[in-house]
Amino acid sequence: MTTIEKPIWDDVEEEVVDEVMRMSNEELMNRARLLDAEIRFMKSELHHVDHEIKVKQAKVKESKSKIKMNKALPYLVANVVEVSISVLSDISQLLDVTPQDYEKEDGANVDLDSQRKGKCAVIKTSTRQTYFLPVIGLVPPEELKPGDLVGVNKDSYLILEKLPPEFDSRVKAMEVDERPTERYSDIGGLDRQIQELIEAVVLPMTHKDRFEAIGIQPPKGVLLYGPPGTGKTLLARACAAQTKSTFLKLAGPQLVQMFIGDGAKLVRDAFQLAKEKEPSIIFIDELDAIVAPSKDVNYEELARCTDDFNGAQCKAVCVEAGMIALRRNASEITHEDYMDAILEVQAKKKTNLNYYA
Question: Which residues does the UniProt record annotate as the domain AAA+ ATPase (predicted)?
């Protein structure tokens, strides 16, 4: 036989009824007046809260309409120059005080711009004008860094939106639309070069953890040299196909532009585009076209003289040859300058390799 348990609220109700039954008429009247006063107070509080909610909703609606109006296109395009903490925060840290410690006089004028806390920014617009923004705008300061492209309001110059990075049209044309489909089996007679290319380019991209476990830093690029038609481009496309990377192809003559700094900007934009579309492989064809060969320099003789030199010593030879040419007020480096530089570097090398017991 099952028993039905009595609900808990029944016990509470019985206790309240017993308490009321023990109270006198005067006590009941006092209790009723207290409850009526409490109900009136709760209703007034509820009415006050409802009024505040309506006021806040109206302010939110007004703010959204203002933001929508201010974000109306077109934007003024600008670049972020610097993002830093506000001047007031800097002074507060220097004096070890907080803005609340400053005394305020009744009726005194208050400079709201000087009391703003947080980060500020310096931007440079497309009209080559620089502006300081004590209030950045709608974009969080943590998402901004120098060089970012942003859209600002035409009147207040507040930052409204962070724009995607701008690339040169010539750089965008470097990207191959279709992914390379070449395979290593399509290339004949280059088994050794294929293996070296896999170790230097493919493995660091597909098995990065193996290099980190050993503790070595993989190479970031390789130099493919040889006569035209020997498979240099095919090797690069096969590596891009195996790693499923974006393939960017540019030619060396593209980097030689009429204006100073234009070629360097192309290189920066190309590497920035490769970073945006990583993993990527950049293939620079005809690299020897960047610098014209010197006609009066015997490269075979220089190669024989620098046979046992490493990369740092070869660079030292070029720098020393340039210094020798400067000493005689020349604008070009000749073969004799290189030979004198090789002798100079060899003399330093012999001096540095004296071992003592």
Answer: 218-340
Per-residue pLDDT at 248 exceeds 60: yes
Q: What is the pTM of this model?
A: 0.52
State the burial class of residue 254 (Cβ atoms within 10 Å of its Cβ: 0-12, 13-18, 19+). buried
Given a contact cutoff of 8 angstroms between Cβ atoms, the answer to whether 41 and 33 are in contact is: no
Structural domain count of the chain: 4
Question: Which tens digit of pLDDT belongs to each residue from 279-319?
Answer: 899 998 888 777 766 667 787 888 888 888 888 888 899 89
Q: What's the rounded mean pLDDT across residues 17-37?
A: 83
Residue 347 belongs to domain spanning: 299-352
β-bridge partners, 175: 248
Write the DSSP string, 150-162: EEE-TTT--EEEE
Nearest to 208, CA basis, from 257, 278, 265, 106: 278
Domain membership of residue 2 (yes or no) is: no
Q: Output b/e per residue, 284-312; b: 16+ Cβ within 10 A.
A: beeeeeeeeeeeebeeeebeebbeebeee
Q: What is the mean pLDDT of the chain?
A: 80
